[in-house]
Design brief:
The structure is a single chain. The protein is α+β, with helices and mostly antiparallel strands. It folds into two domains: about 1-160, no CATH class; about 170-305, Alpha-Beta Plaits. Helices cover about 70% and strands about 10% of the residues. It has eleven helices and four strands; from the N terminus they run H-H-H-H-H-H-H-E-H-H-E-E-H-E-H. A four-stranded antiparallel β-sheet has the order 2-3-1-4.
């Protein structure tokens, strides 16, 4: 996301430099176009230097600023050179937004381009305003709708477990890193739980994998309905699930985990819990939760007590 935006800004700067070096007419406002190119270079440097510190909202705002700068050039240039910059810049801004941003942000970006470009044409007083606006607007919205839908579908497939409909390992990683960053800024506690099904292999061996898959799907659906808004549940692999509880201490997590009881499914599970500490990686936290999980399993095995559901 960061490198693509930096390259997009550099591309816009290159277009501005080309408009200065090879002007379409003698009336091209080279100072204005050069200033726009300088702003684009500055934007690329900011993204390159602070890529790891910029949140998603920051990238959305930077892309929006790129749109506004382009509209300002069109409004004030009042030349075909400004139109060339818009024709080359707007589609790539739309492609970037459709590829990386959510559908809501893509729609906002499309509206920003349509309204901004239309206003710029009216202010600039160029001829054939309606034709220019219609061509660019149809192109931009085609990109936003088609590419945005495709990108969102691909992201959903890449982040979702097809059997349970829960997040998969990749989807959980992205969501967990985001929640950890929020917890570090807010000071809220963050608890992670690993849930491992007990004796699930016997279900597959005795009743078949079709039944086993149905149990996993039903369990994922039942758990999702019992969790709070904001809790993040994922299938971590096989018969292991992982649950992230924002603004929750390990002590408070017990009440949430108690709600996961599903009486009508032929499966039980063991749970390992760990608090995700500041400065700790996700793998380190999962490792501590796994250690707790296996200590629980070993204790039950030594006491020869059937595993409980929670």
């Amino acid at each position: 996301m960061a490198w693509s935006l930096a390259l997009l800004f550099l591309f816009k700067a290159t277009v501005c430099m080309a408009a200065i070096a090879f002007p379409i007419s003698s009336t091209e406002p080279r100072g204005l176009i050069g200033a726009a190119g300088g702003v684009a270079v500055l934007g690329a440097l900011i993204v390159w230097l602070f890529a790891r510190r910029i949140p998603i909202l920051g990238f959305e705002l930077l892309a929006g600023c790129g749109t506004l700068v382009t509209s300002c050039v069109v409004a004030n240039a009042n030349t075909h050179g400004g139109m060339m910059i818009a024709a080359l810049s707007y589609p790539w801004i739309a492609i970037y937004a459709a590829h990386f941003f959510s559908r809501r942000v893509v729609i906002v970006q499309g509206l920003l381009i349509s309204v901004g470009f239309g206003s710029a044409l009216l202010i600039g007083g160029l001829p054939h305003v309606g034709i220019y606006w219609a061509i660019v607007t149809v192109t931009i919205w085609s990109i936003c709708i088609v590419l945005g839908h495709l990108s969102e579908s691909l992201r959903r497939q890449a982040d979702t477990d097809p059997l349970t409909g829960l997040l998969n390992r990749n989807g959980f990683l992205a969501a967990a890193v985001r929640e950890h960053a929020i917890a570090q800024r807010s000071g809220n506690r963050l608890t992670l739980a690993v849930l491992d099904l007990d004796g699930f292999k016997q279900i597959n061996d005795l009743r078949g994998h079709v039944v086993g898959d149905r149990v996993l799907a039903d369990l994922g659906h039942a758990w999702r309905e019992r969790l709070r808004t904001g809790d993040i549940l994922a299938r971590h692999g096989g018969d292991e699930f992982v649950l992230l509880l924002p603004a929750t201490s390990p002590e408070s997590a017990a009440a949430v985990l108690e709600r996961l009881r599903v009486e009508d499914l032929p499966v039980s599970w063991s749970i390992g819990v760990a608090e995700w500490l500041s400065g700790e990686s996700l793998d380190e936290c999962v490792g501590r939760a796994d250690a707790h999980l296996y200590s629980v399993k070993n204790a039950l095995r030594l006491r020869d007590v059937p595993p409980v559901r929670v």
